[in-house]
Design a protein that fits this description.
11 helices; about 350 residues; about 40% helix; alpha/beta; six-stranded mixed sheet; rod-shaped; about 20% strand; 13 strands
């Protein structure tokens, strides 16, 4: 019980704690009365008046509240900000975007003209719709060509992620180093990755050969993190499928997309490849990925500091209004005294406090 009370009080604080030393002044209404001094003969001779006694105590309490409320308001009370952990539906998604020069071409393998979209532009538009479709998804964005570049680390700030995705249609380079891009994308899954659904989404229109020396490191990382792996292959019309065997020697150099697909299948992690030959196919693939990643995910809400000064000043105002009402209700017996005859005035004893 004590720990609970301590935890509750620990959530509150004031801006000017020294002002609280003035709080004992709130007891003054119990020591001194602000009621009007009136001439009354022998109050003890009158009958007991519980109503008047209750009104007297109410005025003292109102004075106490008025002083205490004003002091607390000046001290600046507030409730501290806090971080609350909740559970929603979503996933941690690390997006790896190919920025090689071929992404600047259309799905027909030419430079865009008129209303045509490049592969990068179509990916940018559709991935932007994907981000933010669920409130609690977390995203990281990595771009790769000759070298990988971390654009946005894992975050639930969807507007920042959409801004990063909007930049993926900038001109890229010719070389595709997918191995280094994969390593950087895997590093974006945080320490809580074991408790949430994780997905690595690769958006690329081709592949490069992964050095066998690097493959071992990637296998170890995939085995440790075990993300759901999705490859969105933006296939140029007329180019070989990832499942097509080359007519000649079947080597990674001759068919890099096919051998990258085989490498992904050998990782032992859940893996799906989507071949898209147009924006509609890309949109359909993204919808499937979104439907597959629907697991509970913990997320944090940051509650801002809450100012409570208005409550303290409101309490003080209430006390002051009661005191003002009490003053306005007082009878002006002095005015009545001036109307007394000289003989009646002589009969009035010395003034005593009401």
């Amino acid at each position: 019980m004590t720990a609970t009370v301590t935890a509750i009080w620990g959530r509150f604080a004031v801006d000017a704690p020294l002002v609280l030393w003035l709080l004992p002044l709130a007891l003054l209404p119990f020591r001194a009365s602000a009621q009007r001094v009136v001439p009354v003969a022998a109050i003890d001779a009158g009958p007991a008046d519980p109503l008047s006694r209750a009104i007297g105590w109410a005025l003292r309490i109102a004075g106490c509240l008025a002083i205490a409320g004003l002091i607390l308001g000046i001290a600046g009370p507030y409730r501290r900000g806090e971080t609350v952990t909740r559970t929603g539906i979503g996933a941690q998604v690390s997006i790896l975007v190919d920025r090689s020069g071929s992404m600047n071409e259309t799905f027909a393998g030419r430079q865009p003209s008129g209303a045509e979209e490049s592969k990068a532009a179509a990916s940018r538009r559709l991935l932007g719709d994907f981000v933010g479709s669920r409130a609690h998804d977390q995203f990281a964005v990595t771009a790769f060509s000759t070298a990988p570049m971390l654009v946005v680390p894992m975050t639930d700030r969807h507007e920042a992620v959409r801004a990063a995705i909007r930049a993926i249609d900038r001109p890229g380079l010719d070389y595709t180093n997918v191995a280094r891009g994969l390593a950087m994308s895997l590093s974006q899954f945080g320490p809580q990755a074991a408790n949430v659904s994780r997905a690595l989404l690769i958006v690329s229109d081709g592949a490069a050969v992964i050095d066998p020396r690097v493959q071992g490191t990637l296998r170890a990382e995939f085995a440790r993190i075990r993300p759901n792996l999705y490859w969105l292959f933006l296939r140029t019309k007329g180019s070989p499928s990832i499942a097509d065997k080359p007519a000649g020697e079947d080597t990674p150099q001759a068919a890099p997309e096919r051998h990258l697909d085989l490498f992904f299948k050998s990782l032992g992690t859940p893996y799906r490849a989507f071949e898209a030959e147009g924006p509609e196919a890309v949109a359909a693939a993204i919808r499937q990925i979104e439907a597959l990643e629907r697991d509970p995910i913990p997320y944090t809400e940051r509650r801002p500091r809450l100012d409570l000064s208005w409550m303290a000043f409101g309490l003080g105002l209430l006390g002051l209004l009661v005191l003002v009402a009490g003053k306005l209700a007082e009878a002006d017996v002095r005015r009545g005294q001036r109307a007394l005859t000289p003989r009646a005035k002589a009969a009035v004893p010395e003034r005593i406090a009401a």
